[in-house]
Amino acid sequence: MFALHRHEGNGQERFAETHTGLDHVGLAVATRADLERWQEHLTGHGVQRSPQADRPLTQSPIVDEPYGSVLTFRDPDAIALELFAPPAGA
Question: Cys-Cys with 72: which of 36, 53, 66, 87 at CB 3.0–4.6 Å?
Fold first, then answer.
């Protein structure tokens, strides 16, 4: 389980990677097919597909690189989250 909690009393500041603290959270999944299932799950929960995950509740396309495949998305506070699948056969 992975839970995200929003604090309503924070003065409405948005998260920024350039501030001290969390940059992003990356989690591994077993296969690229798992990334595709997560992409559908996120879409079903209101995380919009976008060319870039650059604002709250957006997700990027799955990017395939020689080292693996990555799905990036942002939570309601714009914290970057990443799901990574190793290349097939790795």
Answer: 53
Which portions of the chain are predicted below pLDDT 70?
1-7, 10, 20-22
- Domain assignment present for residue 32? The answer is no
- The closest alpha carbon to 87, from 28, 32, 33, 39, belongs to 32
Instruction: Taking the CA atoms of 54, 57, 63 and 65 in sequence, report the sign of the dihedral they define.
Output: positive
Instruction: Write out the residue range of the structural domain in which residue 65 sits.
Output: 44-79
In this structure, is residue 19 part of a structural domain? no
53 in a structural domain: yes
Burial of 85 (0-12, 13-18, 19+ CB in 10 A): buried
pLDDT value of position 6? 61
Residue-level pLDDT at 89: 80
